[in-house]
């Protein structure tokens, strides 16, 4: 599980708004740590609020641990990078077969646009990331 700590600031139905001070897992100084928290500080030094599932009913002001399964990171990378590349290459190959080099360029753009559009649908997100992809209070 990928985990971070934060403080519940508000409730929103089955979800809670959690203020998280740092980015990354916080294991920067451990062996094998990637230093990702240092990268997030470059772009965003202030704390951020995230909307997460609240299955245990945490209340505002309570410090909580927010978790997401490890496999969601890999699935997210596949959904974010592999699907658009697959659309690009498949569109280019189809266009090449139908209309030569010009068709390949048009097909590549069309395949990429189709893949990006597919990513925006809830159905595709559930299939690519899985039902447990939403962060939750542990």
How would you portray this structure in words?
- The chain has 3 helices and 5 strands.
- It is α+β, with helices and mostly antiparallel strands and 138 residues long.
- It has a 5-stranded antiparallel β-sheet with strand order 3-2-1-4-5, with no helix packed on it.
- A hairpin with a 2-residue loop joins strand 1 and strand 2 (15-20).
- The chain is elongated.
- It starts with a strand and ends with a strand.
- The mean pLDDT is 83.
Instruction: Specify Rg, calculated over alpha carbons.
Output: 20 Å
On the 0 to 100 scale, the average pLDDT is 83
Oligomer category: single chain
* Strand arrangement, major sheet: 3-2-1-4-5
Secondary structure tally, helices: 3
Secondary structure: number of strands? 5
Q: Give the N-terminus to C-terminus distance in angstroms.
A: 10 Å
Topology summary:
Layout: E1 2-12, E2 15-20, H1 36-43, E3 48-53, E4 63-68, H2 70-119, H3 122-129, E5 136-137
Antiparallel strand pairs: 1-2, 1-4, 2-3, 4-5
Helix pairs in contact: 2-3
What structural keywords apply?
single chain, 138 residues, alpha+beta, 2 domains, five-stranded antiparallel sheet
Question: What is the gist of this entry?
Answer:
Helices cover 48% and strands 22% of the residues. The chain is α+β, with helices and mostly antiparallel strands. Helix 2 (70-119) packs antiparallel against helix 3.
């Amino acid at each position: 599980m990928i985990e971070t700590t934060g403080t519940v600031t508000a409730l929103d139905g089955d979800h809670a708004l959690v203020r998280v001070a740092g980015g990354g897992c916080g294991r920067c100084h451990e062996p094998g740590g990637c230093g990702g928290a240092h990268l997030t500080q470059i772009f965003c030094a202030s704390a951020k609020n995230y909307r997460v599932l609240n299955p245990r009913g945490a209340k505002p002001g309570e410090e909580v641990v927010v978790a997401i399964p490890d496999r969601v990171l890999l699935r997210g990378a596949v959904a974010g990078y592999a699907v658009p590349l697959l659309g690009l290459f498949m569109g280019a190959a189809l266009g090449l077969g139908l209309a030569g080099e010009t068709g390949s360029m048009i097909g590549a753009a069309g395949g990429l646009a189709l893949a990006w559009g597919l990513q925006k649908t809830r159905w595709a997100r559930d299939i690519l990331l899985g039902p447990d992809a939403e962060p939750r209070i542990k």
